[in-house]
Amino acid sequence: MTEQNQTKDDDDTPLEYLALLPIDFSMNPPEDVNVESVCIALSTHPDVFVRGNAMIGFGHLARVTRKLNKARVKPILEAALHDMEPSVRGKADDAMDDIENYLGWKFERVELPPLPAAPDYIRTKAAYRVYLVMDEESNILVERYDLPGVIAPSDKFDPDPRGLSHGYEWRLPGFSLMRDLSPKAQKLEELWKARRRITWLNTSNEFNERAIVQALTLKGAQDHEFCDWLDINCRAWLCNRADTVWPPEEGVAQQWLTEEQFMAGFPVGAHDRYVYALFQTFMAQS
Questions:
Q1: Which of 52, 86, 97, 203 fits a 20 to 30 Å CA distance from 62?
Q2: The whole model's pTM is what?
C-alpha cells in the first residue's frame, strides 16, 4: 500500500470511517500502513471529529510505537491548540501529554480557554439496553455481522442494529427499548429479573447502571440520528458459555474476548467499552 493511498480522502469515503481510522490504526498499527501519515493527512480535515481523532492518534502512536517524526508532528499539535473547536484543542493538549510522557518532547503550550459549561438538562432521543455477558473466566461476549476475510476498519460490514457502534466494531449484546423486544431479548430480561429477585449469585448481578452518551455513527439506528443524546441502560450477566443466553442471529459472528482484547486488542465500540469501564468502577466500589 502506498503512502498516497493510505492518506487518500475523497467524497466517496464515509465520514464515520475517516473519523475512526486514526483511532483504530494508532491503537494497533498495521504493518503495511504508515499510520503517522494517515493522522497527518486527517489533522486538517474540515470535520471536527476527524481532525480531533487525528490528534488522539498521535498520542496513541507515542504510547504504542514510542516513535514519531518530530519535525512533522510537533507543529501540527501546536497549531491545533488554536483550533476553532474546543474539542480539537483539548484532544491536541491530551496528545501532547502522552508524547511528553513517552517521547520526552517539549511543546510551546498555550493556556486553553475553559470548555463550555455542561447543560443542566439533556433531552435523550432513544433508550437502549446493553448487556455485559461474561463467562466464568470473565471473558466478554461480543458480536458483529460476519464478513470473513475483511479487515476492520471497513465500511463493508452491515451496521450495528443498535446504532451505537460502527458496523466493523465488535459490540455487546443489546437492543432498543423503544420497540417491541425480540424473543431472545425478552428471555434475557426475564432471566435477569428472576435471578435478581431470588439471590445474588455474584456481585456483578447488581450492576444496573444508566449512562447518557452521544451517538457516534451515521447509520444503523432506527430511533436516533448522528450526535443525538442516548440513554444506555447497562446490566451484567455472569454465565457458563454453554448456557447460550444470547444466541447469534443468522449472519452474525460471536466470540469471547479477554479484558485486554476488549479494551485494546480488538476494534470494539466506544460506548461498549464505556459500559465495561462503568462495570469495573462499580465492582471496585462494591
A1: 86
A2: 0.67
